[in-house]
Write a structure and sequence with these properties.
The complex is a heterotrimer of chains A (152), B (204) and C (221).
Chain A lengths: L9 H18 L11 H5 L6 H19 L5 H25 L7 H16 L2 H10 L1 H12 L6
Chain B lengths: L12 E5 L2 E5 L11 E8 H6 L5 E2 L10 E3 L10 E9 L2 E2 L3 E2 L16 E6 L2 E6 L6 E9 L7 E5 L6 E5 L5 E10 L4 E2 L6 E4 L8
Antiparallel strand pairs in B: 1-2, 2-5, 3-4, 3-6, 6-7, 6-8, 9-10, 10-13, 11-12, 11-14, 14-15, 14-16
Chain C lengths: L4 E4 L3 E8 L2 E7 L10 E8 L6 E2 L10 E3 L11 E9 L2 E3 L2 E2 L5 H4 L6 E6 L4 E6 L15 H4 L4 E8 L4 E7 L3 E4 L7 E9 L10 E6 L13
Parallel strand pairs in C: 1-8
Antiparallel strand pairs in C: 2-3, 3-6, 4-5, 4-7, 7-8, 7-9, 10-11, 11-14, 12-13, 12-15, 15-16
The chains are: A mainly alpha (152), B mainly beta (204), C mainly beta (221).
C-alpha cells in the first residue's frame, strides 16, 4: 500500500497552532467531552484505512469546524486561515495520490461517525471551538502518517 | 461616513522570487497629504467557503508604502486573492483587486549562491540561506574523464557542509540547485565552481 | 475537616515538567504566606473522562511538586492537573494547569554518547534515551519506540578554525573521518522528534584528535 505523502510545511502549521492553542483550549470549558481524542478511535485505525480517515477529517474541518467557528481576534483568524488553506491543499494532494486506494472500511466509517457524533453532542460554537483546540491531535496524526520523515 | 473620493490604487500587481512575495501598486497622490493603504487577502478556503471574509494583511494594514510583503500571509500552496484600498482621513477609495489570484507555486526560483572552499583536505560548501522552505541538491565530481557525479541533499543554508575528503592535485567541481517541496519545484543549477587541492597527486 | 473559609491565595506557576515521559507537576508557594505551615493537595483530570481524580501520593503534602508520571502514563491522552493550598482550617481556590499532552510536550533527553578518537577521526556512538519506567526493574523502553522517527542533530565545532559542521542522523553511529590531528573538537548532540518545537536538552563534550604517528615510509614521485 503506497503511503500518500503531503507536501505541507508541518513546522509552520504546528507553530501556527501553538500560537493560538492556549486561547482556544482555555475557552473550552467542557473537559469531559472530546471530539477527536477518543483514542481508541484513532489509534486503532489500520494502515489501509489511514487515507480514508485523513480525508474524512480534512472534510470535517473544512465543512464544519472552520465554518462554524466565529472568531473576533485577528491573530487567531490569520492562523486558522493558514491551517484551513493548508488543509485545502493537502486534500487536493491526497486526491491526486489516492486514486482507487482510498476505500473506507467499516472501522474507518465508524471512526468518522464517532467524531461527528461527538461534535453533535455540543452546541455548534462550543463544538467548533473544541475541535480547533484538538487540532494538535490531528496534526500529530498527519505528521505520523503523511510526512516523509515518518516514512523512514 | 467616508465618501469615496480617492481614486483606487492602479497597477496592482505581485512579484515573487524565492518564496518572497511582494505586492506593488501606483501611488494615489494628494498634494501635501499622506495617503495610507490597506491590503487584505483571501485564501482559497475563504473565497470558496467564506467569501465575505477578507483578512487584513499582517504587514500592511495600514502602510504608507507602495509595496507590501505578503510572504507571511501566503502560507499555503493555493490561490490567494488580494485587494488594496487608499485612505486619507475619513476618505477612502474603492478596492483595487489583483487581476488574477496568486499561487506561490508561481514564484521564480533562482540558482542558489554558494561558496566552495577547500579547507585543508576537505571540500566544503556553504549555501545561501533562502529561508526554512528551502533545501538544496548539491552535486560534486572530480574533474577527470569518466568521473561520477555524487549528490548530497542539504536541509538548510548558512551551515557549512562537508562534501568530501579530497586527493591532493585533483580538481573538484560543485554545483547546486534549490528545492522547495511545498510547491514541488526546484531552481536551475548554479554555475559549477571548481577548486583544486594543493599538493602533489600520489601515484595510483 | 471541612474548610471553614477558603480565602487563601492560590499556588502560582503551576506547570508540568516532562522529560522522557516522566511527568512532574510543579508549582510555587502562594504569595504572602511566609513562615506559615502550608500543605497542598493535588488532583488530575483525564481529558474526555468524567471527573477529577485524587493524586493519592500528593494529599496534604508540604513539598511543591508531585510526580504524576503513573497517572499520566498513557501519553497519547491529554490531562489537566490542579493544586490547592491548605493552612489549618483555611484553603485556597484550585490553581489549574493548561491541557497537557505528553506525546507532544515531553522533552526528549539527548542520547547516550560514546566518543573515540583517532589521528584524523572521531567516532560517535549513540544510544537512544530511555522512557520513564514505572518500576526500576521494568525492562527499558527506548524513546525510539515512542517516536519511530527520532533523529539526532550532531554539531562539531573545530576550536582551531572556529568552524562548525552539523548533521542530522537517524542511525546510531557517525564517524567524522575528515578531521585535523591534535585538534580540540567540541561535539554537541541533541534529540529531535516531530511535532511542535520543544526545549532542547543538548549533550556536549570536547575531545582532541590524536597526534600524527610518524609513518614508516613516505612515497615521493
Amino acid at each position: 500500500l503506497r503511503r500518500c505523502l503531503v507536501s505541507v510545511d508541518m513546522r509552520l502549521l504546528e507553530k501556527s497552532f501553538q500560537e493560538i492553542r492556549r486561547t482556544l483550549q482555555t475557552k473550552d470549558t467542557f473537559k469531559n467531552v472530546t471530539i477527536l481524542s477518543t483514542l481508541e478511535n484513532l489509534r486503532s485505525i489500520k494502515p489501509v484505512d489511514v487515507c480514508c480517515v485523513t480525508n474524512n477529517l480534512l472534510t470535517f474541518y473544512r465543512d464544519r469546524v472552520f465554518k462554524d467557528h466565529q472568531e473576533t481576534s485577528l491573530e487567531v483568524v490569520r492562523r486558522i486561515s493558514r491551517i484551513a488553506n493548508s488543509f485545502l491543499h493537502m486534500q487536493k494532494t491526497l486526491e491526486q495520490c489516492v486514486h482507487r486506494q482510498c476505500h473506507c472500511s467499516q472501522e474507518a466509517t465508524n471512526a468518522t461517525r464517532t467524531i461527528h457524533d461527538n461534535y453533535n453532542q455540543l452546541e455548534v460554537s462550543s463544538a467548533a471551538l473544541k475541535s480547533l483546540g484538538e487540532l494538535n491531535i490531528f496534526l500529530a496524526w498527519i505528521d505520523r502518517n503523511h510526512q516523509e520523515t515518518s516514512a523512514t | 461616513d467616508g465618501a469615496t473620493i480617492l481614486p483606487a490604487p492602479q497597477n496592482f500587481s505581485v512579484r515573487s522570487t524565492n518564496m518572497k512575495h511582494l505586492l506593488m501598486w501606483n501611488p494615489v497622490t494628494q498634494p501635501g497629504e499622506t495617503v495610507f493603504y490597506f491590503v487584505q487577502y483571501q485564501g482559497e478556503y475563504e473565497s470558496l467557503y467564506m467569501s465575505h471574509i477578507w483578512i487584513p494583511s499582517s504587514q500592511c494594514s495600514p502602510t504608507k508604502g507602495l509595496e507590501c510583503d505578503v510572504t507571511d500571509d501566503v502560507t499555503a500552496t493555493v490561490p490567494y486573492n488580494f485587494r488594496v484600498m487608499a485612505m486619507l482621513g475619513s476618505q477612502s477609495s474603492a478596492w483595487s483587486n489583483l487581476e488574477h489570484p496568486f499561487n506561490r507555486n508561481a514564484t521564480v526560483l533562482t540558482p542558489p549562491r554558494m561558496e566552495v572552499t577547500e579547507h585543508g583536505l576537505h571540500l566544503v560548501v556553504e549555501l545561501e540561506d533562502l529561508g526554512p522552505q528551502f533545501e538544496f541538491l548539491v552535486v560534486y565530481w572530480r574533474m577527470e574523464p569518466g568521473a561520477v557525479e555524487r549528490v548530497k541533499v542539504v536541509r538548510s543554508g548558512d551551515i557549512p557542509v562537508h562534501l568530501e575528503t579530497m586527493d591532493p592535485g585533483v580538481m573538484y567541481c560543485v554545483k547546486a540547485q534549490a528545492l522547495v517541496k511545498t510547491i514541488g519545484r526546484h531552481s536551475a543549477f548554479s554555475q559549477p565552481t571548481c577548486v583544486e587541492m594543493q599538493g602533489e597527486s600520489l601515484p595510483l | 475537616v471541612p474548610y471553614a473559609f477558603c480565602g487563601l491565595p492560590k499556588p502560582t506557576n503551576i506547570t508540568f515538567l516532562s522529560i522522557n515521559m516522566k511527568n512532574v507537576l510543579h508549582w510555587s508557594r502562594p504569595e504572602g504566606l511566609h513562615g506559615v505551615e502550608v500543605t497542598y493537595t493535588v488532583q488530575y483530570f483525564i481529558y474526555g473522562q468524567r471527573k477529577w481524580l485524587s493524586a493519592s501520593k500528593c494529599t496534604s503534602i508540604s513539598r511543591t511538586y508531585c510526580d504524576l508520571s503513573v497517572e499520566t502514563s498513557d501519553y497519547e491522552r491529554q490531562f489537566y492537573a490542579k493544586v490547592k493550598a491548605i493552612w489549618e482550617t483555611r484553603c485556597s481556590e484550585w490553581a489549574e494547569t493548561e491541557r497537557f499532552y505528553p506525546f507532544l510536550e515531553t522533552q526528549v533527553s539527548p542520547p547516550e554518547v560514546a566518543l573515540t578518537t583517532g589521528e584524523k577521526s572521531i567516532s560517535i556512538a549513540l544510544t537512544a534515551p530511555e522512557k520513564w519506567k514505572r518500576n526500576p526493574q521494568d525492562s527499558p523502553v527506548s524513546m525510539q519506540q515512542v517516536y519511530p522517527n527520532l533523529k539526532y542533530n550532531v554539531s562539531v565545532y573545530d576550536t582551531k578554525s572556529g568552524r562548525t559542521w552539523s548533521q542530522c542522523i537517524t542511525n546510531s553511529t557517525l564517524v567524522l573521518s575528515w578531521l585535523e590531528p591534535s585538534t580540540l573538537y567540541c561535539v554537541r548532540v541533541e534529540s529531535l522528534v516531530p511535532g511542535p518545537t520543544r526545549l532542547p536538552l543538548p549533550w556536549k563534550q570536547c575531545i582532541s584528535t590524536l597526534e600524527v604517528q610518524t609513518s614508516t615510509w613516505k612515497v615521493k614521485v
